[in-house]
Amino acid sequence: MTDLAPLFELRLRTPRLELRLGTPGEIDDLGALAERGIHPPEEMPFGVAWTDGIGQPGFRERFAEFHRDQCESWSPLDWHLDLLVWADGEIVGNQELYAKEFAETRLVGSGSWIGAAFQRRGIGTEMRTAVLELAFRGLGATAATSGWLEGNRASGRVSEKLGYRETGIGEIAPRGVPVLHHDLRLDRADWAPPFPVEISGLEPALPLFGAT
Ligand SMILES: CC(C)(COP(=O)(O)OP(=O)(O)OC[C@H]1O[C@@H](n2cnc3c(N)ncnc32)[C@H](O)[C@@H]1OP(=O)(O)O)[C@@H](O)C(=O)NCCC(=O)NCCS
User: What is the topology classification, in CATH, of domain 5-209?
Assistant: First the structure.
């Protein structure tokens, strides 16, 4: 079995945030944050409508299982780095970075959410900056993709501010009704981090990302 211990030593620090993998207890705290609300119920910012399960029996268990699986299914050919985000010692959200066959493609994708109480303070921009620095400076990525669903201006704006450009528009239906999806891409040549990001503990983990 792959030794994933080096991943747990990885730390990203921005002026206000710390990002790292969570313990089972911290992941449960993240589930509790999700239960307190991420978006208004009439909106669905995610491609998979997982927040519709909030308030239903077993939500916290399913949430924890999903996060555990993300880690346990790790392979250098297909990985999902599921970072928890702390601001002033408090868990505020989740920032994911993922890739398939990174050694070949040098391409990453990302997804994120922040508890409603912590949104619109610049945290979303700061945590995306952290994983883009990990991708471009730390892992040697050549491009990053992202996307946003029509109506989710906050997500679109974070990407726009960080230099992504739109590469296409598609349709997905997280709640069974088609919604426009904006596809975005940021090339390394266009990446200029708006503030410094400290990356520590990466070197021993590089082979796990297919980034040696
Ligand atoms: C998307 C998300 C991660 C952004 O994080 P955030 O901390 O709220 O974002 P920031 O404060 O860093 O920046 C948001 C930008 O969008 C703008 N914005 C936020 N809400 C907006 C709205 N409803 N309409 C227009 N602009 C909006 C802000 O003004 C800011 O731009 P500015 O710096 O030019 O003023 C967060 O809002 C979130 O978790 N939303 C719910 C889940 C989600 O949408 N996840 C992403 C799925 S693709």
Answer: Aminopeptidase (3.40.630)
CB neighbour class for 144 (10 Å; exposed up to 12, middle 13-18, buried from 19): buried
CA–CA dist 130, 1 (Å, integer) = 29
**Is the CB–ligand 1 distance for residue 159 below 6 Å?**
no
What's the pLDDT tens digit per position in 11-47?
999 999 999 999 999 999 999 999 999 999 999 999 9
The response to whether residue 119 sits with its C-beta less than 6 Å from ligand 1 reads yes
Tell me, what's the pLDDT at 44? 96
Whole-number Å distance, alpha carbon 125 to ligand 1 midpoint, is 8
Which atom, in ligand 1's list, is nearest to the CA of 125?
Answer: 12
CA–CA separation, 76 and 99 (whole Å): 9
Q: Closest ligand 1 atom, CA of 115? A: 39
Domain ranges of the chain: 5-209
CA of 4 to the centre of ligand 1 (A): 32
Cα(181) to centroid(ligand 1), Å: 16
Residue 148 CA: nearest ligand 1 atom is: 48
Beta strands 107-114 and 143-149 are parallel
